[in-house]
Amino acid sequence: MPAPTPLPALTYDRPASLWVEALPLGNGSLGAMVYGDPWDERIALNESTLWSGSPLNESNAAAAIPASVAQPALLDARVAVLDRRYDDATKAVEKVQGPYSQAFLPLGTLRLRTRVAGEKDKGTATGYTRALDLDTATHVSRYELDGRRVRWTSFASHPDNALVVRLESEVPLDIDASFDSELKGVELDGASPPGRLVIGLRAPSDCPPPHEPTESVKWSEAPGEAMRAAAVLGWTHDGEVGAAGGLSARGVTRLTLVLAAQTTFVDALTPPGVDAAPAAATALARVDAALADVEATAARHLADYTALYARSALSLPGAPLHATLYNYGRYLLIAGSRTGAAMNLQGLWNKTARPVWSSNYTININTQMNYWAAEAVGLGELAEPLFGLIDALATKGKTTAQRLYGTRGWVAHHNTDVWAYSSPVGMGHSSCQWAWWPFAGPWLCLALVERVRFGNREFAARAWGPVRDAMAFVLDWVFEHDGVLITAPSTSPENTFTVGDDATRHAVTRSATMDISLATELGRALLEIAEAAGTASDPIVAETRAFVARLPRISPGSDGLLPEWAENHAQAEAPHRHMSHLVGVYPGNTIRDADQLAAAGRGLDEREDDLATGWALAWKVSLRARLRDVQKIDHTLSLITRDAAMPEHDDEVYEGSAFTTRGGLYPNLFSTHPPFQIDGNLGYVAGVAECLLQSQWGVISLLPALPTAWNGGRVSGLIARPGVRVGLEWEGRRLVEARLEAVGEAGRGRHVLELGGVRREVELGKGVLVLRAKDFEEACSGW
């Protein structure tokens, strides 16, 4: 299928036949993938809180790895690492592996089977188009039947928390609606009301990832072990009810169908309810309310969505696809993260009952990347679901930190889920390179700190608890060895090394660079927000200040590169998709000295890989932007926007197949790992913002890393720290105009601006400051 026309609408001339051709709708809770078939429409559905399992999974982990096993294993691993007995260290760490986190599940599929009224066979649709309008968050498919027009319109409303599908047809149609699900059904008392279809569902109690083929999906009906859900369909139309009753209509020219869903999820700490009836009643009430005045429902949707989407826009006449991807990524952020659960590996859209990597929260990079762009494009409040997940992890992770490691504070590892699972995964037989990594807490907390840095000073009080307790874990985890603060055991996410001529791969060593970088980032962040949070007298502030002063500097090795590990081991897999050792370059800001940045650039050159995953390419754009390496950004953008390898069918098994390499774009512009992962789309938005505007280290840099293809363009609504809204227009790679406005009190006052290496000071009050290139012709006195 050809790529869409790169306009405000993604437009196609045929229906989708594969999920990666379908177009996404979402309201943060309800996700839909619309295929647009005139005769057999499929809309694949998800609900953000519909996951397998329950909070009891953490109890299973506690039973599998009690303190009596975990804490001696930790000491054994530490001694083995310091003795450079890496095999023994690995065996010890494997004892600290528990069950897997749970899976994000599909709700089901809405089917709309359509025929020309009175006809048995399909007709011939001509002039077909389907489009996702990014300006209105609306899917529209149009076609003609014997010269008579048919139009289907769909949107997912956040105010009404429902999916709305509308038909306007010049030819009468017979339509049958149904709902299919791979979840187990639950009987509900009473029949569905007229014009309504009410379905009760039950999720599995355990859904292991498919890379554990000997483990099966489990279905328990015991209280609190699995959630229930309900989906409700309702419609109104101008036809007649079909002979079969239910949602069957004949001779329809006007129809509105509304679908709502509700689960029995309460929160990450509370077992889900076992009665689907209240969920069904809630969903039914939503359907009835949305149908009561459909025009008002549509108006509420449009007003709600445009208030967010209109905050920023990008136009690139010389690279329209790049601009479309930026605007599409913002659309996906709005559609995927409002209320409900945070966006997972696939955001809000997953078609598979046992998805690859459980479509969970992979918190050694991917979950964090989902939200990197939120503050920079003026959508910071959309990270609230992530903050809720962090709060839950900070609560559950305290018990885990004490049980496994005997430390203060809280810990989280490589994976988590809607239940805030905080223990290591792997079941005692998985590679420590991904199954064990205890520094997710510090990295997640940096998202809280960014909310403060971008101007929301009041948020510091909210951020303080998780940040403080994550720091407490770090303070207890890091220890002194030979006069240097180190971490041991330590892994660098998903990476391995070799020692000498031995080809054996190891993952467990001491002081992965990422550990030290995150300890530094979090420590400095805590000191930064303590005053705003009103907690400067907390004893941990003085403890952290002394600790940060003693942390070792990340220095280039003898090879001129920043090392992945303190021992500067040889990488076993090169080039590697993770750039964990560069977290202090981006999204962090503690690696800033000239020798460090030069070494980081050389290291990125070593990891140039045209077969890199979509999310890795997105990360490289931001890293290269920080390094001002425009030439390499150009190449990376070409890799991001190439066509992805296509699956042959919707049930293609990716893991272990030919599709496990090479990122790119599917026909619906979803970024691929493969398979689809939304972090590539959302990380790309962050990279674009970083190319156009940077604001680390107290300087606001305009057009710091403009790609070659972006010769001219215009962007609005970017946000700089500490709360400055910026609009830019440029032509011939030269600034035409910059518009700056303080977002709130934090953005008012004096700021240092930079353009092309020239700096000047400006004062922002309540108005808009307009600057042009001539305003930067001379550096300010004193710079």
TrEMBL record:
Coiled-coil segments on the chain, per record: none
Domain spans labelled Glycosyl hydrolase family 95 catalytic: 321-692
InterPro entries: 6-hairpin_glycosidase_sf, 6hp_glycosidase-like_sf, AFCA-like_C, Alpha-L-fucosidase, GH95_cat, GH95_N_dom
Gene Ontology biological process terms, A to Z: carbohydrate metabolic process
Domain Alpha fucosidase A-like C-terminal: from-to ranges: 694-742
One GO MF term: alpha-L-fucosidase activity
Domain Glycosyl hydrolase family 95 N-terminal: 10-266
Identification of the protein by name: Alpha-L-fucosidase 2
Organism expressing this protein natively: Vanrija pseudolonga
